[in-house]
Amino acid sequence: MQLLTDAQHKRNHTRFFFLRYLYLGGIAYRFGIIDLANWAWDQLGHILKSAKQLVIAKWDKSMMLRMLAHYDAILKSKRDVAFEIFAFFRLILSVSTHDRPLVSQTQPNIDTCVLLYKELPLLAEPVRGLILGCTFVVILSLGHHSSVWKEFTRDQRSTLYAAQAHLVFLRDNQHLDLGWLQDPKKSKILGLACSDCSKRLDSAWRVSFGLCGALNSRIPLEDVSNIARLPQCRQIFAENIRYNPTQLCKKDCNEIILRVIDENLNGLFQEQLPAAYNQFAE
Ligand SMILES: [Zn+2]
Asked: What averages of pLDDT result for each successive group of 10 residues across the chain (282 residues)?
């Protein structure tokens, strides 16, 4: 009986409970008990309300792979939860960049990020595609002086050098669609808010995604670093707009806008960054 309500309590928003529901969902799905799988995945959504605290825990490679093991199935039946899981996955990797507006701890999962990146050739789609963009941009952002780059083969480093040279002035980059980030009103993201929410969402944007600036730097890796920390901006934005009952409107602007942001981030990390990477690797 306790298992039914554990995820509702903030004190249980721990890595232990997260892994327990993840395991339960995976087993239930494998045995075709879809209702139970859906229920377990819903519990993950509750626990991820504490993503900021969870992200500084140690997440090893097998935990990260398990997080994505049934991603497509979760996406089909629990789209919002799938978006939250993938946002959390990206967040764990993102706090390994130099620039960490969200946490003060030092790169708790950089080793995991490197291991996942090295494992890419062995992984099948769609998992490979889910991991490639998130790990590539974090490792790239660390720069060629970092000890991390020294762990890779010559070919892998050549890809990173090519990416470093080409991924500047990202505002006009042919691979990446970043218009929504540059002008959120024109791209209709913030324009979706009702008149009651508009001002509040504008100010939440300013202290999160607004930190990315104009993305027009010619200095190598400056714009890339901003892209690498986007998952942290998403977390800061989500915390700003959620979990305060006085900030809920009838149109549910918070969740509508966050889903549109997630769709843009998913496109960037799942499609555009992997496509750019594949070109640099040729
Ligand atoms: Zn509203």
From this structure: 70 91 95 96 94 92 95 94 97 85 74 95 93 96 92 93 96 93 88 92 94 92 95 95 75 93 97 95 89
pLDDT of res. 108: 82
Question: What's the pLDDT at 221?
Answer: 95
Cα of 168 to ligand 1 centre, how many Å?
36
Q: How far apart are CA 84 and CA 38, in angstroms?
A: 14
Q: How remote is the CA of residue 249 from the centroid of ligand 1, in Å?
A: 5
The Å distance, Cα 195 to ligand 1 centre, comes to 7
125 Cβ neighbours under 8 A, 6+ residues apart = none
Residue 258 Cα to ligand 1 middle (Å)? 12
Per-residue model confidence (pLDDT) at position 249: 84
CA of 94 to the centre of ligand 1 (A): 30
260 C-alpha vs ligand 1 centroid, how far in Å? 15
Question: What spacing in Å lies between the alpha carbon of 193 and ligand 1's midpoint?
Answer: 5
Which pairs with CB-CB distance under 8 Å and at least 24 residues apart come from 107-110?
108/55, 108/56, 108/57, 108/58, 109/58, 109/59, 110/148
CB within 5 A of ion ligand 1: which residues? 194, 197, 249, 251, 253
Q: How far is the CA of 252 from the centre of ligand 1 (A)?
A: 6
The answer, as to whether pTM is greater than 0.90, is yes
pLDDT at 105: 65
